[in-house]
Amino acid sequence: MDFSKHDARSAAETPTPMLVLDQRTGKPILDGKKKCAVLVRGASSRSAQARLRAEEAARQKAASAKRGAHKRGKNEEDDLTKDLQASMIRSAKTFIAGFENIQRPDPETKELRDLTVSDDDIMWFLDLNMVSVPHLLRIGNDPEQEEDEDDDEYEARLAEHKAKWLSPSFAQQVIDHAREDDNFWGNRQQTEAARPLRRLSPQHAGKIKADPA
């Protein structure tokens, strides 16, 4: 059997559009009737992983250079929020491959122009809103099934937990899209023959659904 059809990492190399949602309402942001989107590569792609390693190496080098120069004080909570914001932006930046129907005033001419994939434009976009700590805390904290709770009830409660809008920032939206392999499977014209392994056992299928994306 040709297992290349299971190559999720290669599929994740081709960017897919992510609709940008209003952080306050969770609704798609529109430009008239056109939807505003970011073209995102998958987190499992080899190119994205290489960028993440390079970013982490640069971060560690910078941190090492100033280690001991900064001491947390009364503004520790603000510092932690800034650190989270910087971390989210740094991660999200590695996945962005383009923009659709998103513009900004040019820093020099002040005229509106389309966003490019320059570092300046990407960083400007990702820093338009702050990281949502409640959304961040939800990742990896799915509720467990109660002893007296049947599967249907648990699945409904889990779906409600995942669907609740917790105001993720643009950076968090990009990261969430990039981490979900299902957003990229269509890039390799997958057949349903690749799916049954996830449905062989009801217990196994339930565990997969309960695992964080």
UniProtKB/TrEMBL annotation:
The segments labelled Disordered in the record are 1-25, 46-81, 183-213
Record's superkingdom? Bacteria
What residue spans carry the Basic and acidic residues bias annotation? 1-10
Q: What is this protein called?
A: Uncharacterized protein
